Amino acid sequence: MRRLINIHKRMGAERNITLYVDKDINKIVTSGSIYDLYTAVTPTGGTPESKDGETTDQQPITLEGYQWTDPDGRYVLTKEGVLLDPVANQTWSRLLAKGGSPSVNAAYINRVVTYTATSQATLLQSALSDLKTHNHEAVNYETDIAVLPQNINIGDTIHLADENEQLYLSARLLELKSSYSMDTHTATLGDYLIEHDQVAAQYRQLAEQIKNLPKTIQYYPWLRYADDDKGTNMSALPAGKKYMATVWSNKTSVPSDDPADYAGKWALIQGPKGDDGVGVPGPKGADGKTSYFHTAWANDVSGRSGFTVSGGDGKKYIGTYSDFTLADSTNPADYNWALFKGSDGATGPQGPQGPQGVPGSKDVPYTYIQLGTPTSPKKGDLWWHGTTLNDATALQYYNGTAWVDQSIQQAVLSIKKLQSIEIDTSLINSPTINSPFSHVQISGAKSSGNLSLSNAALQILGNIEDNSGNPNGQYYNTILNPSGMTNYITTPDQKGNVSSAGLQNGALQLKTLISDPSAATKKYIQSEYKSTDNVTFFYVNSPAITTANMSYAYIYYMRRGNIVTVQFVLGISQQKPWVVLADVRPGYKPYAESGVGCYISNTNYVGQACQIYISKGQWVTMPTSPSGECRGSVSYLTQDDYPTGDSYFS
Questions:
Q1: Is there a single domain that holds both residue 143 and residue 127?
Q2: Are the C-beta atoms of residues 81 and 63 closer than 8 Å to each other?
Q3: Where does the source fall among the domains of life (predicted)?
Q4: What are the Cα distances from residue 585, in Å, to 556, 559, 561?
Q5: Is there a domain that residue 453 lies in?
Q6: In angstroms, what CA-CA distances link 432 with 419, 422, 458, 481?
Q7: In the chain, helix, strand, coil percent, each to 5?
Q8: 3-state SS, residue 333
């Protein structure tokens, strides 16, 4: 008999939409499970059909006696027909639970599996495929979605990215539930696949190169004058000097007074005086024009304060430029300005402020620093409102007809004490911050309310609105303080809560309404979640247990939450029924022991088994054969307190 499944069409489409953590996703939680893990498999196939002339009944096929060698050298097929994974056994061997070292020949977690294959080759491939699937911890992902795009349909594939953790996944939307009465929307994702980072390698390499680029180097102009090109009688002032040297240094803004630092940089700036009182022109250029070097001095870097072309005595800045005009320009903007005088001595007491100076050239913008409105401003002028830049309160720009407010960069601000400030309707008044909000999108609905920060507590109090911004009667309150976090959402009649949550003292308390929100008497489900609820407790007896019908017995207890799984490895010594194996370990006792029981297969004899069940808090065994080894497991619910002293893992 052949079984065929024809897949006509896969539901959904690839949307090429990526949701990012801290933007569209609150978090992606990664968890692992070893519930279905095993490191060895004993496969049993189907029963072949009898051939013509055969009178004996056919038996289900096994891999006993089948010859096979793994080309990769990892998996081993024993002569008894058991397929082993020695590599996985190094990590998950049962000996590890007892503090021992794993062995390649023993202590495998074996699973007996029945297949429909009717040939040993097909049976081997089926068993090998299952072993590869279950020889490692199963990884699960839980995604807390904050915003889901509206154009996503059931079956569509989307992409998830947590760039901080370098985790990239694809997943399909399996289910989408909407409750219009509760105004909630729940999306279920599945078929998770791990993806690689989508950033191309060349962009990574470019980012690394940019990161390693050297930082920008600041250069400072050094300017000195001397009597000759050797630096004789070097001075910071040009009076009586014939040579000038300019050096750009990345060491300091204060020019050096060592002539050796200017070697090779000296240039003649004063030729022999002619009859007309002007210098001798330089050599004629190719176009027949004579180039002239111009120098001016001033008290500030803009050149406006104390501008002169007659000499640099008492000036701090020098300006230079070259052109083909003999006369020196009187426009400070034509010069390139640089500091050439060292710092002054100690500052004396400040004198009274003088009258406002007259602006410079009519074509050059001027900067005013004063309290009163400047008279006769021109386009491009700037006005700092204050007596100095240190106490200026505003900056304006004159556009030719009116003064226009300008923004002030953060680096310019100097705030010593800020009493209170209002920013876009938010009020900051130490130690309280209040920030109202209106019609913001929160979990599929709109909301208006207030966010406040006061007395080491953050509180968000608001209402819930429909898509038109009208309140529906529900309110929510979220408080975060040093003792933890609490949150609740009221019902529309405000006589109860739709849900509430609290995170305090290392535990998460949850409360959910399960009755109609408008019911007079409201019913709730309450639960508490602690760190012990998210680990797997583990215990195995050592040494082995021996009884009247068992030469050895190992009981493996595993518990996660209120679900217990118990695995048995029993060595049958005789076919004696109703023999007590051991007491059920505290912390793993069943909630209803009358329903706990199972048959575990005999790995040595096909069709033989051992019945095991709980009676009066004890495991009782009933083997169906006098020898062999039985292996299997049973799962049930418990309400015991968590065990103390047992091993656990997350």
A1: no
A2: yes
A3: Bacteria
A4: 10, 11, 16
A5: yes
A6: 11, 12, 10, 14
A7: 10, 40, 50
A8: helix
- Structural domain ending residue among the three candidates 102, 119, 136: 136
| Lookup: tokens for 623 | 């083997």
Q: Would you call 172 helix, strand, or coil by DSSP?
A: strand
Residue 98 has pLDDT above 70, yes or no: no
Q: How many CB atoms lie within 10 A of CB 65?
A: 9
- Give the end of a domain, one of 407, 439, 464: 407
Contacts of 579 (CB under 8 A, 6+ apart): 547, 548, 549, 550, 620, 621, 622
Alpha-carbon distance 312 to 327, whole Å? 18
Task: Mention every residue, 6+ apart, whose C-beta is less than 8 A from residue 223.
Answer: 236, 244, 245, 246, 255, 318, 338, 340
> What average pLDDT does this structure show over 14-43?
85
Tokens of 282: 């330089």
Tokens representing 498 are 């739709």
How large is the average pLDDT for residues 142-164? 82
Give the single-character DSSP code of 72.
Answer: T
Average pLDDT over every residue of 187-201: 63
Q: Are 372 and 501 in the same domain?
A: no
- Classify strands 110-114 and 40-44 as parallel, antiparallel or unpaired: parallel
Same domain, yes or no: 565 and 645:
yes
Cβ atoms 436, 462 nearer than 8 A: no
Mean pLDDT of 485-513: 89
Closest-CA residue to 198 (of 248, 161, 173, 247): 161
Taking a C-beta distance cutoff of 8 angstroms, is the pair 586, 558 a contact? Answer: no
pLDDT of res. 160: 83
Span 419-454, pLDDT tens digits: 555 565 666 666 788 889 888 887 778 888 888 888
Tokens of 232: 């004789």
Helix (H) or strand (E) holding 122: helix 120-134
